[in-house]
Amino acid sequence: DEFVIHSPTLSSIKWWPTGMYASTHGIVFAQLYSKGKNYGYHGFMVQFRDDQGNLMPGVEVGEIGPKIDPRNTNIGYARFTHVRVPRFNMFARSQQLTREGDYIAAPPKLSKFKYIGMMTIRAGMVGGAYSMTANAATVAVRYLCIRKQGFKDSTSEDALNSGENAVLDYQLHQYRVFKALALAYTFHFSSRYVQEFLARVRDGVMAGDDKAADGLPELHATLAGMKTFCTWTAHQQVEAMRKSCGGQGFLRASGA
């Protein structure tokens, strides 16, 4: 009456899981095999450590090397060697495996509901794109308002006394900075939309409303596209804001 969680190959090792070093338990997604047939990936609750903080038998976690940003949460790998967990540790709201090993599939409309965790992460990444872009744009706007560069009247015989322009007075910088600022607002309202969409579908399904599951395909497609576009665009804008601040933008203290 147990499942065996096993990583038989190098490619089956969990790579890049986050926060393992501080976790006693984790949700492990694995391919479900029963009677020689693969029923696709399912979630299982697995205990990583005992009450003394020691790894459980068969559980191996480790580091994969330094990251570009040393401030990142610990990210490494996890490997499982014949780790046994009770049968009820399988997430079985929509699909089940009987004690005899017979698989009971979820209703067709709910077959993809198990991706809701991934969708939740993607929705969070849209919000993350907003916060990172907004932060970088705020830093750049404030800095460029006080940073002086270039005389206001460079043709004057007394150009020094004519004063200097704020960097934000230049149209090129206005275009660069205001574009990032506008995108931050776009990401903000997009994040609110997808979070509300996600909550409506998730809460409806959890409450037993099968009609709510009709929104799963659109929700999945929307989040897949928005996660990609928003994070890629945010990366470009944050880098542009950092460069717009000159050398100061590359100081960690800048916050950009």
From TrEMBL:
GO terms (molecular function) for this protein are: acyl-CoA oxidase activity; FAD binding; fatty acid binding
A GO CC term assigned to this protein in UniProt: peroxisome
InterPro entries documented for this protein: ACOX_C_alpha1 (IPR055060), Acyl-CoA_Oxase/DH_mid-dom_sf (IPR046373), Acyl-CoA_oxidase (IPR012258), AcylCo_DH-like_C (IPR036250), AcylCoA_DH/oxidase_NM_dom_sf (IPR009100)
Pfam families attached here?
Answer: ACOX_C_alpha1 (PF22924)
Q: Where is the Acyl-CoA oxidase C-alpha1 domain?
A: 115-255
Record the organism.
Alexandrium andersonii
Question: What domain of life does the UniProt record list for this protein's source?
Answer: Eukaryota
Question: What's the protein here called?
Answer: Acyl-CoA oxidase C-alpha1 domain-containing protein
A single GO BP term for this record reads:
fatty acid beta-oxidation using acyl-CoA oxidase
